[in-house]
C-alpha cells in the first residue's frame, strides 16, 4: 500500500499543471537533426513496399504503454495508469463548461434532436459550423488565414504509409503544409512522421483514433488528445500546439479540454471533400470543388483575407489530387503555406527552440527548422507571443502542493 501511495504521489507531483504535461515526455529524437533511414519503405513508390512493417531505431513501441491503435485512447488500461490519472487529476474539472457528451443515433450519425441550433449555446460545429467559442477559458479557433490571397494548406489523417511520392512532390515544390497526424498512424509509421518534421511541415494533433469527439466522455477526450501528443513527441521530438477534430466535431466542452493541454482548434472554411472521391462523391465533383476554389484565388474572393482548405493524406487518390492541383493553386494564390506561418506563429510547438520563419520572411542561417524549409533565428512575433500568453492564461493550473495533497488523499483512501 505504501509503495503504491508513493508511486501515485510521484506521478501526481509530476503534473503540477496540466499545461506542463509534455515536459515529462523523453524522446530520443532531436527534431532539428532527423535522419531518415534509407530503407525500401522510405525510398520506394510501390504502395505494398512502403506499407511493409518496420521498426524505427529511435522509437520503440511498447504495447503495454500505449492505447490499442485505432481504439479509443482509454483502451488497454491507459485511463487507469498512474501517468494518466496524474494528468486527469491536475485539471480543475469544475471550471469546464456544463455540456454533456452527445450520443450517436441508430443511423450512425450524431443525434442533434433537441439541440438549440438557433442560439447554439455550446458553439457546436457539427450543428452550426460555429467557430467562435461562447464559454470562457477556451482557446479561440483558427479557421481562416488572415493574409489576402492565401491558401492555407492542410492535410488530415497522416502519416500515410505510402506518402513518399506526395512528400517528395511537396519538397520539390518547396511547399509546407499543416499535417494533422493521427496518433495511431504515428506509432504505426514513425519514420513517416519524422519525415514530416524533417521536411519542415507544421505537425498537429488529429486524435488517437479519429472519432466524433463530442460523443466521448471527458476522460476519453483527454486521452485521445494526450496520447496523440505523446506519440508525436516521442516519435518526432516536437509537441504540437494545434489540433483538428475528426469530422470537425467539436463544441466548447471539447475545446476546453483541449485548452488544458495548450491546444488550439484548427478548422477550415473550404472543404474539397477529397476523402469521399470515388466513394460517396463522384471524382468529378471533388475535381470541381478544387477548380472552384482555385478560381477564388484570382477572382477577388480572397482579396482581403485567405482560406484554410480541408484536404487529406488519407489515400493515394487524395494525395494524387493534391499533386495534380497544387501547381494551379500556386499560380492563382499569392501564398500557399501552412497554418502556423499564415497566422505568423513562429513557435508552433511546446518546444520553443523549434521556430518557424515569420510570415513573408525566410532566412539562410541554420539554427532551427522553419516553415520555409530553411532555418531561422528570428524571435517569436508579437502575435505569436500573444497567442502563447493566451494559451498559458486559459489553461487551468494547480500547484505542485495541490497535486501532492491530492496524492496524499489518494494514498489514504486507496
TrEMBL record:
Cofactor(s) required for function per UniProt: Co(2+)
GO molecular function annotations of the record: chitin deacetylase activity; metal ion binding
Membrane topology label: Lipid-anchor; GPI-anchor
Signal sequence segment: 1-18
Subcellular location: Cell membrane; Secreted, Cell wall
Pfam families referenced in this protein's UniProt entry, alphabetically: Polysacc_deac_1
Main localisation: membrane
Domain NodB homology: 149-342
Enzyme class: hydrolase
Keyword Hydrolase found: yes
GO biological process: cell wall organization; chitin catabolic process; fungal-type cell wall biogenesis; polysaccharide catabolic process
Annotated GO CC locations: plasma membrane; side of membrane
Alphabetized UniProt keyword annotations: Carbohydrate metabolism, Cell membrane, Cell wall, Cell wall biogenesis/degradation, Chitin degradation, Cobalt, Glycoprotein, GPI-anchor, Hydrolase, Lipoprotein, Membrane, Metal-binding, Polysaccharide degradation, Secreted, Signal
Superkingdom field: Eukaryota
Enzymatic reactions: [(1->4)-N-acetyl-beta-D-glucosaminyl](n) + n H2O = chitosan + n acetate
This enzyme's EC code(s): 3.5.1.41
UniProt family annotation: Belongs to the polysaccharide deacetylase family.
PANTHER family named in the record: CHITIN DEACETYLASE, GLYCOSYL TRANSFERASE-RELATED
The protein, known as: chitin deacetylase
Amino acid at each position: 500500500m505504501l509503495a503504491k501511495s508513493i508511486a501515485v504521489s510521484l506521478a501526481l507531483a509530476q503534473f503540477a499543471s496540466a499545461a506542463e504535461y509534455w515536459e515529462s515526455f523523453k524522446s530520443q529524437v532531436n527534431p532539428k537533426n532527423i535522419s531518415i533511414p534509407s530503407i525500401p519503405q522510405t525510398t520506394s513508390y510501390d504502395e505494398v513496399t512502403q506499407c511493409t512493417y518496420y521498426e524505427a531505431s529511435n522509437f520503440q513501441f511498447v504495447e503495454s504503454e500505449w492505447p490499442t491503435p485505432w481504439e479509443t485512447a482509454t483502451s488497454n488500461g491507459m485511463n487507469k495508469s498512474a501517468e494518466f490519472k496524474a494528468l486527469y487529476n491536475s485539471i480543475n474539472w469544475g471550471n469546464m463548461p456544463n455540456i454533456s457528451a452527445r450520443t450517436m443515433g441508430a443511423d450512425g450519425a450524431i443525434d442533434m434532436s433537441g439541440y438549440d441550433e438557433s442560439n447554439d449555446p455550446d458553439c457546436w460545429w457539427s450543428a452550426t459550423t460555429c467557430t467562435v467559442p461562447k464559454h470562457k477559458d477556451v482557446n479561440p479557433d483558427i479557421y481562416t488565414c488572415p493574409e489576402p490571397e492565401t491558401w492555407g494548406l492542410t492535410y488530415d489523417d497522416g502519416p500515410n504509409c505510402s506518402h513518399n511520392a506526395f512528400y517528395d512532390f511537396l519538397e520539390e515544390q518547396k511547399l509546407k503544409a499543416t499535417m494533422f497526424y493521427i496518433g495511431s498512424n504515428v506509432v504505426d509509421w514513425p519514420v513517416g512522421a519524422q519525415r514530416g518534421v524533417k521536411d519542415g511541415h507544421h505537425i498537429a494533433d488529429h486524435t488517437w483514433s479519429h472519432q466524433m469527439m463530442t460523443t466521448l466522455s471527458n476522460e476519453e477526450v483527454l486521452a485521445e488528445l494526450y496520447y496523440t501528443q505523446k506519440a508525436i513527441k516521442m516519435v518526432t521530438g516536437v509537441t504540437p500546439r494545434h489540433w483538428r477534430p475528426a469530422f470537425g466535431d467539436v463544441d466548447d466542452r471539447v475545446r476546453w479540454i483541449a485548452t488544458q493541454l495548450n491546444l488550439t482548434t484548427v478548422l477550415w472554411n473550404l472543404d474539397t471533400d477529397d476523402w469521399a472521391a470515388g466513394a460517396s462523391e463522384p471524382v468529378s465533383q471533388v475535381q470541381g470543388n478544387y477548380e472552384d476554389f482555385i478560381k477564388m484565388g484570382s477572382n477577388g474572393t480572397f482579396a482581403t483575407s485567405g482560406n484554410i482548405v480541408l484536404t487529406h493524406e488519407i489515400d493515394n487518390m487524395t494525395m494524387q489530387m493534391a499533386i495534380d492541383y497544387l501547381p494551379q493553386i500556386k499560380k492563382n494564390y499569392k501564398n500557399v503555406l501552412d497554418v502556423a506561418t499564415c497566422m505568423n506563429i513562429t513557435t508552433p510547438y511546446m518546444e520553443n527552440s523549434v521556430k518557424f520563419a515569420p510570415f513573408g520572411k525566410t532566412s539562410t542561417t541554420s539554427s532551427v527548422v522553419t516553415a520555409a524549409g530553411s532555418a531561422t533565428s528570428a524571435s517569436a512575433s508579437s502575435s505569436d507571443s500573444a497567442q502563447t500568453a493566451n494559451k498559458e492564461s486559459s489553461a487551468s493550473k494547480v500547484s505542485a502542493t495541490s497535486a501532492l495533497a491530492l496524492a496524499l488523499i489518494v494514498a489514504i483512501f486507496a
